[in-house]
Write a structure and sequence with these properties.
It is a single chain. The protein is elongated, with a radius of gyration of 45 Å. 49% of the residues lie in helices and 20% in strands. It has 5 domains: 129 residues, Rossmann fold, CATH 3.40.50; 111 residues, Beta-Lactamase (2-Layer Sandwich); 93 residues, Beta-Lactamase, CATH 3.30.450; 231 residues, Histidine kinase-like ATPase, C-terminal domain (Heat Shock Protein 90), CATH 3.30.565; 117 residues, Rossmann fold (3-Layer(aba) Sandwich). The strands form 6 sheets. It has a 5-stranded parallel beta sheet, with helices on both faces. The chain is built from 23 helices and 25 strands. It has 763 residues and is α/β, with parallel strands linked by helices.
């Protein structure tokens, strides 16, 4: 088809796609401007070529039986002038490279706008017109050059020699232009050498044409039958273009030598491009290896939030192969709320955004934006790390930090308990000696009771700090009471420093009138304990600890100030980082990190001001709530008391006796059992209204007793009592067994009876 014919008739386009929707969509889009034929597979397309004689073939890469690359190769074998446009929804760089190197004009990635399709078809037609015209023109120019070369010898003796030489020059330059246009677009060095060799042999009839990296041996520069042209650019020598006609003996015309010299300049551009392409290809392979060997999942996401890339680490973390994952919504793997919030931030200009998931497996996700030339969001890259093990280690270290703090307090706690036991034991023995002195016995009992209550409060604080009582929900909390409880908890450590190390330590309290806040008392006690102990460690030579509370606008401010060694700017900036410690092996680096985390979970903030040698001031700000602070939740005791038949199980004879006596004094009928096995043997459905069992018992513990009771009687009411405390995870276990409440030793008679009445009244 000639260039003239192409410009006066409608161009013909063949659309090949195994899916009806995309095939018909392309046909309708192109039908107004072009003659269209369609084919639903490669075999039908090849049969259509001879009949329809298309100018352009638009084909899908992914097709059954014969894919797009195989069809491209066979179309080019049939007619190399047909321009081919590839379409794909899952193009990799390797697939695109194969398509382009096998003669494809361009490729489009689904979905694409109509303007892109029309632009590609228009450019493909223009190149086809140019190619058809160029091929015809090259043949004519070759014949003309040969004709003019023959006439030159005749014209040398004529007056028109100069005009003939100019004509030959124009022809040679035309050949140079056509050859150069072809080679500059080549990227593979081998294909480049093959193209230039073939075109020079065909156009100018040379015997042998090679591109060599080194100057060839045996080809003399003075031999008229051979030519060697250096191929170089601004960066240096790239090789040599060697033309050898010694086999045929035909001399190379001086004008041809000039043409070859000019051609070598184009070859320099082509060779430099091919080397750059090779470097890019090497970089691509290196990046692919890096991505494949990465320990973190690297996932590329399209603008429509579907997965487009998937490395081996992603397969390991999510348990899906690449074939299973490609095309899935990313929100099938990551929490939708966190993902769309991160995407919104990236669309607003943030370069990246990170978040963590809490469901198993725990994941740390970093999302980065992929922007187009105009700044539009073209996709996302998600880097995902499995931090399940890290979380477990952090939890273990947090528990270790808590135990370390308890270890610091243990000596002082032992001191306090020894004092309490001294008072109890001393007055108990004195009461035995003076049992007839009613006034003395009454006064002694009050001292013993007060000492026992003091011990109970100390145990409560320790269990709360160690979270051996279930964590509370957010309630209204009196900040000053939390401060006083924390001081009481840490006071033994303070006194130990004064007594054993003879340090001049002073505590100053400045508690203002502040409103209640919403929080968890145990967590806030843990926070302040870390701050108090940290301040104590920061004063190795003694000093003053000042604790003040203030109301500032809508916040309660707690200030913990020491006169210790202070911190450098570097330490101050990192002091709240997990695992950062200046205490060496003596510290885990989690105390202040946990304190900061607790503050943030209470919608508050924890900051520090410090300079070396001038101490440190930690400031905790917490929002005020309008609720009344908790002073202890009253038990829901019914107005009408009921007397119950109670089975009491405890392996400690003294505790068992005390519990039975307290219940009997409240009017209940009591059956004691000194072990879980004895209690189960005594139990029969309908015989008891309630079972009160200790948790920590030898042989059969309270959990096992409750499980066997439930197997025998689903309706019996069960009440736990423990001196150990409960962990947070035990709450669900209580619910499964239907245990109404858990009491913590020591328990007072009124508290025990109130728990019995509340449990009896519950449905």
């Amino acid at each position: 088809m000639s260039a003239v014919a192409m410009s006066t008739t409608r161009a013909r386009v063949l659309v090949v796609d195994d899916e009806l929707g995309p095939r018909e969509s392309l046909r309708m889009l192109l039908k107004p401007a072009y003659d269209i034929e369609t084919a639903d597979n490669g075999h039908v397309a090849l049969e259509t070529l001879g009949r329809f004689r298309p100018d352009i073939v638009i084909m899908d890469i992914k097709m059954p039986e014969m894919d797009g690359l195989e069809l491209l190769r066979r179309v080019k074998q049939t007619d190399g002038t047909i321009e081919v446009v590839m379409i794909t929804a899952y193009a990799s760089l390797e697939t695109v490279k194969h398509a382009l190197t096998h003669g494809a004009f361009e490729y489009l990635i689904k979905p694409f706008p109509r303007q892109d399709l029309e632009d590609v078809v228009r450019r493909a037609l223009l190149r086809r017109q140019a190619d058809l015209g160029a091929r015809s023109q090259v043949s004519k120019l070759v014949e003309e050059m040969r004709h003019l070369s023959g006439k030159t010898r005749e014209l040398e003796e004529a007056a028109r020699r100069e005009a003939a030489e100019q004509s030959l020059r124009v022809t040679q330059l035309s050949i140079l232009r056509e050859i150069s246009r072809t080679i500059v677009g080549q990227l593979e060095p081998r294909e480049l050498a093959a193209v230039i060799t073939e075109q020079l042999r065909a156009a100018l009839g040379y015997d042998r044409v090679t591109i060599a990296s080194e100057g060839p041996l045996g080809v003399e520069g003075a031999d008229p039958r051979a030519a060697v042209c250096a191929i170089r650019d601004a960066q240096g020598l790239l090789g040599h273009l060697v033309v050898d006609n010694r086999a045929s003996g035909r001399a190379i015309d001086p004008y041809e030598r000039e043409l070859l010299e000019m051609l070598s300049e184009y070859l320099a551009i082509a060779l430099r491009n091919s080397r750059l392409y090779g470097e890019i290809n090497d970089t691509k392979r290196s990046l692919e290896k890096l991505i494949d060997s990465a320990g973190d999942a690297i996932i590329s996401v399209r603008p429509n939030d579907r997965i487009d890339g998937w490395n081996p680490a992603a397969e390991r973390i999510f348990g899906l192969s690449g074939m299973q994952a490609l095309g899935l919504p990313i929100t099938d793997l990551l929490p939708a709320a966190e993902y769309f919030d991160a995407k919104r931030r990236l669309e607003e200009g943030a370069p990246m955004h990170a978040f963590e998931t809490t469901a198993a497996p725990a994941l740390a996700v970093t999302l980065s934006a992929l922007h187009g030339r105009l700044g539009e969001l073209e996709g996302l890259i998600a880097i995902v790390r499995d931090i399940t093990t890290q979380r477990e280690v952090e939890q273990q270290l947090q528990q270790s930090e808590k135990l370390t703090a308890l270890g610091h307090l243990a000596g002082g706690i032992a001191h306090d308990f020894n004092n309490l036991l001294q008072a109890i034991l001393g007055y108990a023995q004195l009461m035995r000696q003076k049992s007839q002195d009613v006034e003395f016995v009454d006064r002694s009992l009050k001292v013993v009771e007060a000492a026992a209550l003091d011990g109970t409060e100390t145990v409560r604080r320790i269990q709360t700090f160690a979270r051996l009582r279930p964590e509370e929900e957010f309630v209204a909390v009196d900040v000053n009471k939390i401060v006083q409880d924390t001081i009481a908890l840490t006071r033994p450590r303070w006194e130990e420093k004064i007594a054993h190390d003879s340090l001049p330590l002073e505590l100053r309290l400045d508690l203002g009138t502040v409103g209640p806040i919403r929080g968890r008392p145990a967590r806030l006690t843990e926070l302040l304990t870390n701050l108090f102990l940290n301040a104590l460690d920061a004063m190795p030579d003694g000093g003053t600890l000042t604790i003040a509370t203030r109301k500032e606008r809508d916040d309660v401010t707690i200030m913990v100030k020491d006169t210790g060694v202070g911190m450098s700017e570097h330490v101050r900036k990192r002091v709240f980082e997990p695992f950062f410690s200046t205490k060496g092996e003596a510290g885990s680096g989690l105390g202040l990190s946990m304190a900061y985390s607790i503050a943030r979970r209470h919608d508050g903030d924890l900051s520090v001001e410090s300079e070396p040698g001038r101490g440190a001031t930690f400031t905790l700000r917490l929002p005020i709530t309008g609720e009344r602070a908790e002073t202890g939740a009253p038990l829901g005791v019914p107005l009408v008391r009921r007397q119950a038949r109670v089975l009491v199980v405890d392996d400690d004879p003294k505790v068992l006796s005390a519990l039975c006596e307290m219940l009997k004094s409240a009017g209940h009928t009591v059956t004691p059992a000194p072990s879980g096995a004895v209690g189960l043997a005594a139990y029969a459905p309908g015989r008891f209204d309630m079972v009160l069992t200790n948790l920590g018992m030898a042989g059969m513990n309270g959990w096992q007793v409750a499980e066997r009771l439930r197997a025998a009687d689903r309706g019996v009411r069960i009440l736990f009592i423990t001196g150990w405390g409960l962990r947070q995870e035990d709450k669900s276990r209580l619910a499964v067994l239907g245990v109404r409440r858990c009491l913590y030793k020591p328990v007072q008679p009124s508290e025990l009876d109130a728990a019995i009445q509340e449990t009896l009244a519950s449905p």
